[in-house]
Amino acid sequence: MQSATALKPAIAGREHWTHNGDAELFLWQKAPEAGAPSGTVLFVHGSSMASQPTFDLQVPGRPWSSAMDYFVDKGFETWTVDMRGYGRSDKRPGTQATIAEGAQDLVAATDYILKTRDCGPLYVYGISSGALRAAAFTERCPDRVKRLALDAFVWTGEGSHTLENRRKKLPDYRPGERRPIDKAFVYSIFNRDHPGTAEDKVIEAFADGILALDDSMPNGTYIDMCTNLPVIDPTRIPVPALVMRGEYDGIAGFDDLIEFFKRLPNSDKQFAMMPGISHASFQQKNYMLVLHILHAFFTQPEPIYRG
Q1: Contacts by 183-187 with C-beta closer than 8 Å and gap 24+?
Q2: Are 240 and 266 in contact (CB under 8 A)?
Q3: Which structural domain, as residue segments, surrounds residue 189?
Q4: SUPFAM superfamilies, per this entry (predicted)?
Q5: Whole-model pTM above 0.90?
Q6: What count of Cα atoms within 13 Å lies in the side-chain half-sphere of residue 211?
Q7: What is the arithmetic mean of pLDDT over 115-129?
Q8: Of 216, 205, 209, nearest to 182 (Cα)?
Q9: Which CATH number is 28's domain given?
């Protein structure tokens, strides 16, 4: 017999649109049906997939495959946005989609969210290059971020065997062009580090969701992560921060993250090592552990004594 949780229907979402200059951006919102939300979470996607497959994935028989649904059930309003070059947002030829441009897109998205909802500072979660975008956005607009969670993050790139392999293909990643993706590519995300961390039915659903929106992705974040790191200064992130690393993640070098973590100036900070997890945390077998860690951080009481 399925649990009551598994039988819950997907929570209805609502699309929104805004602009960064003349580029149109797609936003997706899910919220509790009644009462004031506990807070507002903004999810930021990575290099190779748009926002909805990453954060609002629906897999039959797998409760809370949608991180957005999970947090709405916990009383939060949730938002995500397709960066320029991804999903339903502007994909005009020549789009760079760099990390810096992603941070600009987040400024535009939060302009819209904060004016529309009058909700105050946001809880922000970013994964992989989305973590870099979220951190860059926080450097620019720290007053808009209540708590920042960085998952599968990379700082200097030291110790990242995924980036080492990616650099070998750097001549193929031309600025303003796109790289093709297919189902085999999506499977490679889960098999490159430690096969077996995700169920095939989840990878299939994830791939179907990604490929329904895109058959190629912009090169900007790949180029940045291969040639321009570090792009984040940890001393300029003043908000409470959580650094999350999957045990088998080939992007996020452990020592590199520890050095980044040391330099975060706010003493309200945490480092979470996530066992049995590689990349794409919400699609792993141990995804409920990820949701628990993130929810605990977002609901942590504020310190009443600082010394």
Answers
A1: 183/207, 183/211, 185/48, 186/48, 186/49, 186/210, 186/211
A2: yes
A3: 4-298
A4: alpha/beta-Hydrolases
A5: yes
A6: 14
A7: 95
A8: 216
A9: 3.40.50.1820
